[in-house]
């Protein structure tokens, strides 16, 4: 158990046939290794006993256990979702283990199992503070638990609370009770209800009034154990005038079975607060035949509760077999601003159904949506969005731009925007285009000596520029690389 | 999940005996469609295609089946006079053909036009294929197709119009559907079958008008098939009275290089729903629509446009404008599907809307579903107000604000008629649009 | 005719005009020149009453009335005309129809008799001839699909029909080739008269070769920093805007 090991099963045969191809395949999902570490957890299955056990393992107060049970009971009454555009094998909720954690629970980062540290290092997220990413505080979540949070002292000095959700429930119960479920109610949708019942860990961020968070905050989610679902819960609260930028990254090993990831993220921005939430989602997408991969069913919602507040979502979605997520903003405060910038890339048999909801309630609220979908292989990529101007949304504005890029003849690119307008002073604008990389563009690049794959990634990168610009620098570089890797083999 | 068939509306539509005395296959088909309607019930807002059109109010009403006295109702031809449109016409009152109001003398060679009731008395076999299904396009098997089913079960009259290969109708053929007040609130149904042979050309004007404000429910299903190289120019003017609930479904199928151009004006009615579907099944087929919907008062006007590109080098362009005032609601869905292999497809859709009142609502949903990569596809939708710069420009030239607004709103709608070749008709329709605007 | 005193105006919270003063008498042609961002277009927009331009101080008196208190259409009826730098396209509104609606609205407001379509057409034909503009322009929608030159000529044509007392030309020369510039200038010259005044806002001197101004003002930093006759324009052409106004007190009145 002294090291991590690359799972080479799928590349072994190819290696014998063609070293070049094998290299490409091996590279195609570099996060697909398994960490060998002693684990503890709950056996598969879900009932009230499971939830009580989970709550007990986590030493949660009674009110939390009750909150979970209530959500569970509600979940039992809800119909399983059925989406026209997604091909989903039925999920067996009794076959999933709802809690998996490394056996050794460290008290501080210094005690974290070296195998874990190495895992994160390999993923490009070193946790040792001397090696850590400059100016980025990281909370690392491994399967069901947080294994460590960096830069805690510096953050505490600034008054910022950044810790795992489990810890927050124990240490800051009033804050958690006040805000948890206040944006995404337990019964909001099927997966949000399930998450509320069984969520294991996640990050908690609280920026007090007037504080600008001195560094980027980041959570790195890693699914490792087999047959485990990951149900994290993130809550970010920015009080009056507070600013925070938060990043999340996700990976999982290559496995033949589908694994479920059903997270809930809640953001609360009080008056004048700003929250910027960036995601680079690179869960295992399944192989080129559509075997395995993560089911990524996530509920993300921000509440611009105060006047002049702003919530901005930026996402780069390249992973998962199936993605279903609509990071949304409720624009409650007057003059509040919601933004959604998205790049979703699907290849092979991936299916992505993603978009946003902008619910305008306050006066002179503004929202902007920029969505870039890239479909390759036999994948299916849908934008689904809602812009709603309620009666009180005096002078509110929305601008939406959705562009799809098709690479190959067997993929699908779809756009389903809903616009509901009840205020005659509001303005909603939506534009969408679908195109492919033109032969002329390709020829032009190639005649200048640029290889086919480089030309494609160059054009795709250009296509996504508007969104990449919104990402923090290090993430933008990573996102660009990720697209390149995800697109390998898409042309030719 | 549909609402149960036990609702008053469904009950009343199921109550009366089905039309009988047709060919055996037709009677059997009617029974089958009625059974399908009884089993499925009415669509509710959980069905995607009915998301923004709730039948709650309508579902609680009962309508008497058909109008036994339709043949004798006094109808003034002036009620449906249409400047710029002279020529053959078929007129239906409460769904029943009225020979005395129609004009069938001037039919050009190769054009056959007769009411369905008459066609069924002769050799009905050519209609067997069409009438065995609730609708040509989409086959009426989708969730929420209840009205196509009840239409297929109940419609005893309508239009059968055939244009032989290479025949051209010079004067437009006019189809007039009059809803006339009767002793009871009526439901009536009409089924139209229109076929253009290879290279045929047809100008068609479809009119919906009312006599009296009485509540009615009418369902109309039209199948329109265009052979290779056929051309259709079709103008639809829906100006029914405020009591009329009109549920229409028009399905077009276009074969190779066929071209259809539709101009649709939705002005009247209480609850108005139009499912307009086109399948471009032949290479090089072209489908163009221009439409305006202007609900006011408490009107609810819902247009569901769905275009399927299924062949090479097919083109569609769709430009629709909506203006909603008072407490009205305008709903538009414009769905474009480019099927696998339909390379060279060029699809463009835009829907622009103006909201004139704080109690009005517009819901719009353009959709693109693309399964081929050699494609040009784009759509756009807006909901908002008149352009501030244009308003200022007009005011800076001395035109008062109210007048400037009216002028720009009228222009906003009238733009959809710009490419209508019949200038007299265009002016008349412009007048109808302006009359619909708030003073 | 027009007296602007200590005018301060803001756009989107930013102060653009900072105490501009200017007097224009009937029959005069004034040229306002200045570098980009000096506030030239803001002046035109404030005078014609565009929304979004907030006057924070100062007065504008036009023929003895407070111009700033009037709605845009009332200013038009009072004889103020702005030839736009970027005339907006209005699809679906016919040019002739638009112009007649504008003229009659103005006449009505002034208590004059409205023109019927025959009278109007006669007037338009006259003006077309004088302006040397083809009547094809009348049948199109307002500015729709017009080239840059056509749009500017259409503005001048509208001015000819509406016969304002005070015409403000906002960079009417920009984007025109030399032939189009001559045509526009000729149109303006035709309309010069003892009871009409012009305010020509321009960046370049070249328009002034064709429409010779009585006064030239330099607008910089939101104020008139120098005034003179047409020789000032030539001086600017040679030396540029750098250094202008440093030798004289700001706020000079012509």
From TrEMBL, chain A:
Residues 153-213 form the SUF system FeS cluster assembly SufBD N-terminal domain. It comes from the Bacteria. Transmembrane segments: none annotated. Residues 221-463 form the SUF system FeS cluster assembly SufBD core domain. InterPro entries: Fe-S_cluster_assembly_SufBD (IPR055346), SUF_FeS_clus_asmbl_SufB (IPR010231), SUF_FeS_clus_asmbl_SufBD_core (IPR000825), SUF_FeS_clus_asmbl_SufBD_sf (IPR037284), SufBD_N (IPR045595). One of its GO terms (biological process) is iron-sulfur cluster assembly. It holds the Pfam family SufBD_N. PANTHER family: FES CLUSTER ASSEMBLY PROTEIN SUF, UPF0051 PROTEIN ABCI8, CHLOROPLASTIC-RELATED. Belongs to the iron-sulfur cluster assembly SufBD family. This is Fe-S cluster assembly protein SufB.
TrEMBL record, chain B:
GO terms for biological process: iron-sulfur cluster assembly. Residues 184-412 form the SUF system FeS cluster assembly SufBD core domain. Belongs to the iron-sulfur cluster assembly SufBD family. It comes from the Bacteria. SUPFAM superfamilies: Stabilizer of iron transporter SufD. This is Fe-S cluster assembly protein SufD. It comes from Rhodanobacter denitrificans. InterPro entries: Fe-S_cluster_assembly_SufBD, SUF_FeS_clus_asmbl_SufBD_core, SUF_FeS_clus_asmbl_SufBD_sf, SUF_FeS_clus_asmbl_SufD, SufBD_N. Residues 24-174 form the SUF system FeS cluster assembly SufBD N-terminal domain. Pfam families: SUFBD_core, SufBD_N.
UniProtKB/TrEMBL annotation, chain C:
This is Fe-S cluster assembly ATPase SufC. GO terms for molecular function: ATP binding; ATP hydrolysis activity. InterPro entries: AAA+_ATPase, ABC_transporter-like_ATP-bd, FeS-cluster_ATPase_SufC, P-loop_NTPase. It comes from Rhodanobacter denitrificans. The keyword Aminoacyl-tRNA synthetase does not apply. Keywords: ATP-binding, Nucleotide-binding. Gene3D superfamilies: P-loop containing nucleotide triphosphate hydrolases (3.40.50.300). Pfam families: ABC_tran. The lineage of its organism: Bacteria, Pseudomonadati, Pseudomonadota, Gammaproteobacteria, Lysobacterales.
